[in-house]
Amino acid sequence: MAKVSRITELKGVGPKLAEQLEQKLQIRTLTDLFFHLPFRYEDRSRITPIGMVQPMRPAVIQGEVRGASVLFGKRRSLLVKVQDHTGLVNLRFYHFNAAQKNQFRTGAMVRCYGEPRRGASGLELYHPEYSIIDEGLDADLEPSLTPVYPATDGISQQRLRLLHEQALTLLAADQVELTDLLPPQWLQQWRLPTLKDALLFLHNPPRDTRLELMESGQHPAQRRLILEELLAHQLSLHKLRAQVQADAAPAIHSAKQLQQALLANLPFTPTNAQSRVVAEIEQDLQQPYPMLRLVQGDVGSGKTLVAALAACDALEAGHQVALMAPTEILAEQHFNNLSGWFNPLGVQVGWLAGKVKGKARTQALADIAAGSAQLVVGTHALFQDEVHFARLGLVIIDEQHRFGVHQRLALREKGAHRNLAPHQLIMTATPIPRTLAMSAYADLDTSVIDELPPGRSPITTVAISDQRRHEVIERVNRACARPEQGGENAQAYWVCTLIEESEALQCQAAENTAQELTAALPHLRVGLVHGRMKAAEKADVMARFKAHELDLLVATTVIEVGVDVPNASLMIIENPERLGLAQLHQLRGRVGRGAAKSHCVLLYKSPLSFTSKQRLQVLRDSQDGFYIAEQDLAIRGPGELLGTRQTGLQMLRVADLQRDGELLPQVRDMAQQLWTQHPHTVEPLIQRWLGDAERFASV
Ligand code: ADP
Ligand code: MG
Fold first, then answer.
1. Whose CA is nearest to atom 10 of ligand 1?
2. Are residues 36 and 114 in the same domain?
3. Where does the Helicase ATP-binding domain lie (predicted)?
4. Residue 615 maps to which CATH number?
5. How far is the CA of 398 from the centre of ligand 2 (A)?
6. Residue of 77, 72, 45 lying closest to 58 (CA atoms)
């Protein structure tokens, strides 16, 4: 018998519905329909005695109407008392008509489904679904848990349930074309149900299934799909890596003369960790295919030097190097630093950012195209179509968490001289816990700079309630005032955070704070940077702060990454409870860069919740970015840590990285096995969970 595969083969699915299903829910085939999974379940399979109803736990109840009255409070509402032999509960309706009110005549039997909440009259069900039960007739309860599907305009919950019912009947009778993509021996080895069994279960869990088990994602049918989805993501990253590394790249062997010249001019020598990571990079550069390496190094660990040493190798071999940073402030800072290091060695350093316009831009582009700009520093502007490199051999990306996966793919084309793709070095100051890194960066090799340069004094971190704000302001005064005024001549940051409000409000808050502090600290020179200022204005303020023409810099979190002002030794962070630990750690890393003892004040809004206290304590206890990241993961989950959108992991359908994180090592092993032993299943798995590669890559 021919098996069914297209959705139009179901009864009741005409061309119009088929088109809606495809356009709104990407459902074309029965397999697509099966993978449109419930995101939660309702238990309408049993009646809960009213006396046992609990707040927030949706339930079916049944009882006798004991009265219905219209109340005139702030809003008019209909209150219906329903009683069984165990207790009494109230139904409350804000939208109702006379006919409805009359339905609830005293003595009528009513059955409802809804979520009980604490209300003015005790436990109440707001706008429950209900039916009046005719005497003698016993309405049926559902035979299984009720799946709730992601529905949309024009395709109702009810419609989806009916489609699934039909499709599941066919599936149970083996009349559907459905491929189990996991190797059969895995099912035994990992104790997983077949795809068919898993789907039959998930769309229709029997009434004795425990809802709590389903909610925690622990049921074997769920595990099977969760593993499959995580596996598909992992494989897509493997594929990305394979795509990039299928290109040829220049094999770079270096005599290290340029490195020696650079180091000879520096007042310090590389740390052991820096040297080790440079050696790891050099191994990669010698290969005839592109390097894909991520360097993780805590704030201040000296990633710039590592990048510069890698650049030396490529430059010496006659290649151009591009270095990209996520913001103009950072790019400009790199440009200044690297010009200082490389110009004396006779290397031309070029500069390209959005704000480079007109003649200067034409010239910059010409220098890049001619190859006379050897090391080119810039922002995203370096990605644009109009930028052509003569012989790009190495691309360095600073602070990877702001760049997307697809941008890494785009880099391939920028190399294309003699069909050679550039090597890629990605540097991040956001330490990612190992398990998570395995997933998020499965396409990259990683190196870790696990040592700070010597001579850094630890930063003392304290948490102070905003009720003592005036004391904190006085402290800024002492730190920043000139010695003749009894101060310490240091510099300070005052960071304003207001994350859930609009950027405009955030900038407004920073402006207000700057005014307040200017008034309170008449001896100090106060500057302000925020996201709404023009790039040139921001750069100007930063330059003045760096030159110690400003004592106190009031800023929004735009200063989060990379800004380097060694004389700054005090940082105040307002409302730290609103930020992730990783971000706070980044911010704090702006101080403690010079020899002076540094301090960080977390000026929190009291009272603090228990979790917030816990989190701020982590920051007071430790300055180790990896430890902090692990704690952040444990307390807040991976979404926050990874930032958004750079991995595709935010689009997970059944898996949840925090809940299912412990599966990641297993997923990694599975991905390896599948890639080498069952390569034909790789593409179908990616297709099934991620759709076309383009869909993933353009996230
Ligand atoms: P990050 O890893 O945060 O990007 P940077 O590259 O900005 O760190 O380096 C932070 C500071 O440490 C800079 O002032 C840099 O010159 C200095 N630095 C880097 N490497 C060393 C080293 N081996 N010894 C001493 N100072 C160093
Ligand atoms: Mg840096």
1. 300
2. no
3. 284-449
4. 3.40.50.300
5. 7
6. 45
Final residue belonging to a domain, choices 581, 596, 622: 622
Whole-number pLDDT of residue 643: 45
Ligand 2 centroid to residue 590 C-alpha, Å? 10
268 lines ligand 1 (CB under 6 A): yes
Q: How would residue 136 be classed by pLDDT, with cut points 50, 70 and 90?
A: low
Nearest CA among 600, 642, 603 for reference residue 622: 600
Distance in Å, CA 438 to ligand 2 centroid:
23
Report the amino acid identity of residue 657.
L
Mean pLDDT, range 67-77, rounded to an integer? 89
Q: Give pTM, 2 decimals.
A: 0.74
Q: Does residue 93 register a pLDDT over 50? A: yes
Statement to judge: residues 110 and 90 lie in one domain? yes
Q: Domain count of the chain?
A: 3
Is residue 15 included in any domain, yes or no?
A: yes
Range of 186's domain?
A: 7-41+146-215
Output the residue whose Cα is nearest ligand 1's atom 13: 302
Please report whether residue 321 resides in a domain: no
Does residue 577 lie within any of the structural domains?
A: yes
Centre of ligand 1 from the C-alpha of residue 270, in Å: 9
For residues 52 and 179, membership in a common domain is answered with: no
Domain assignment of residue 244, yes or no: no
The number of the ligand nearest the C-alpha atom of 338 reads 1
Q: What Cα–Cα distance (Å) separates residue 635 from each residue in 114, 581, 618, 664?
A: 32, 10, 10, 18
CATH number for position 85:
2.40.50.140
Our answer on whether the CB atom of 448 is closer than 6 Å to any ligand 1 atom is: no
Q: Cα(302) to centroid of ligand 1, in Å?
A: 3
Rounded Cα distance between 413 and 410, Å, is 6
Given a cut of 60, is residue 336 above it in pLDDT?
yes
Confirm or reject: Cβ of 564 under 6 Å from ligand 1: yes
Boundary of a domain, candidates 198, 215, 232: 215
Between strands 40-42 and 146-148, the pairing is antiparallel
Other CB atoms within 10 A of residue 638 CB = 22
Residue 453 CB–ligand 1 contact under 6 Å: yes
Q: How far apart are CA 495 and CA 23, in angstroms?
A: 45
Residue 160 shares a structural domain with residue 120:
no
Q: What is the pLDDT of residue 434?
A: 66
* CA-proximal residue: ligand 1, atom 4 (nearest): 303
Instruction: Give the whole-angstrom CA distance, residue 123 versus residue 102.
Output: 23
Indicate whether residue 299 lines ligand 1 (CB < 6 A). Answer: yes
Q: How far apart are CA 277 and CA 450, in angstroms?
A: 10
